[in-house]
Specification:
Elements: H1 3-18, H2 73-77, H3 104-118, E1 125-130, H4 137-149, E2 156-160, H5 168-172, H6 180-184, H7 190-193, E3 195-196, E4 202-205, H8 214-218, H9 222-230, E5 236-240, H10 249-254, E6 259-265, H11 271-278, E7 286-292, E8 306-308
Parallel strand pairs: 1-5, 1-6, 2-4, 2-5, 6-7
Antiparallel strand pairs: 3-4, 7-8
Helix pairs in contact: 3-4
This protein binds adenosine-5'-diphosphate and magnesium ion.
């Protein structure tokens, strides 16, 4: 049985036990039958990972996007606005200086699994998605970005591409604009939308001003251009997305990324919808599943389950157990 199958199955079993899980309002499942979950057997495409850009002070060289003459990365990044963030202390786990606090170990485990996957494929631009709203995509994306940047010299860009229900600016306690929608509409350049906060080397592109046509904006090609412009500056780019089942944005976004991380919420995500979400993405794009097993804030953050994609990945134990 594949790891992803196991994760989906586990989520479904827990939902059945609790009988408390339900789909989000407005996104209720229309199908009640649950065809067998497709087992994933193929290996992901394996590409040798290119060397990561060294942190700090590296001059732009040929092959990288040109921003004019000649800047160091540090000089370019200094053009990004530095803002005072007020992160939500309960859910933003790495801002309080205590890296052993509840939930942090699971994110370290997730980080090491992603590095393990990265040995087998190019993996820098990672989309975080799930079937439905409120399953923990933004929570996972934000904490993953933080744990990645805790490693010395790593530079991480976190992008709020959920233009329908942006949350990252609220979680990090900062302004939502200027941001992605402003760039996609052509009213801002890349550096004016990349915020720096109190955590060294963590950059945020918030959602930007509210817009009426998120699907068209996300698909207009400028996001790909943005990523081409900035990706050489970062070790990881983590993209928070809208839910995959009700709207098509996530599958459009996935085409600009190297991999997709699927969040499944324990006691909540119906397995048929998790499967439908998973089918929005090609097999080789799906790098893993996170079972976000907590229920609100009352249960410790102790039940993440990361299932790496690919049959030769053997460690499927839930981290922290
Ligand atoms: N493991 C968790 N522990 C505590 N709170 C969580 C956890 N996962 C999600 N939440 C909270 O649940 C709410 C919904 O999560 P969010 O990440 O915004 O969902 P999504 O991005 O999938 O819509 C947020 O308030 C978030 O902080
Ligand atoms: Mg979200």
């Amino acid at each position: 049985m594949s790891r992803i199958h196991e994760a989906l199955k586990k989520a479904e079993q827990e939902r059945a036990v609790s009988q408390g899980g339900s789909a989000q309002p407005g996104y209720a499942p229309t199908e009640t039958s649950e065809p067998a979950v497709r087992t994933i057997q193929q290996e992901p495409a394996v590409t040798v990972t290119a060397g990561m850009p060294a942190a700090g002070g590296v001059p732009l060289t040929s092959g990288m996007p040109s921003f004019g003459s000649p800047f160091s990365l540090d000089a370019l990044l200094a053009r990004c606005p530095q803002l005072e963030w007020k992160p939500d202390e309960k859910t933003m786990l790495f801002f309080n200086g205590d890296d052993s606090s509840r939930g942090t170990e699971e994110f370290r485990t997730l980080r090491s699994r992603l590095y393990h996957t990265r040995e087998k494929m190019t993996l820098k631009k990672l989309l975080v998605t799930s079937a439905l709203p409120k399953e923990g995509k933004s929570f996972t994306a934000a904490n993953l970005a933080q744990v990645l940047v805790r490693q010395h010299g790593r530079r991480v860009l976190l992008i709020d591409a959920d233009l329908r229900g942006p949350r990252l600016h609220l979680m990090l306690g900062t302004s939502s604009s200027p941001g992605l929608s402003d760039y996609l509409q052509g009213s801002n350049d890349e550096f004016s939308i990349m915020q720096r906060g109190p955590m060294d080397n963590l950059f945020l592109i918030p959602s930007g001003d509210e817009i009426s046509d998120p699907a068209e904006l996300v698909a207009n090609g400028r996001l790909k251009f943005l990523l081409q412009r900035v990706e050489a500056l970062f070790d990881w780019i983590i993209i928070d997305s809208p839910p995959a089942v009700p709207v098509s944005d996530a599958s459009v976004l996935a085409k600009t990324c190297d991999g997709v991380l699927m969040v499944v919420r324990s006691n909540s995500t119906p397995v048929d919808l998790a499967r439908r979400a998973r089918e929005q993405f090609p097999d080789q794009a799906l790098v893993g599943v996170v079972l976000n097993g907590t229920d609100g804030e009352s249960v410790p953050y102790s039940r993440y389950y990361y299932a790496a994609y690919g049959k030769n990945v053997t460690d499927s134990k839930a981290p922290g157990k």
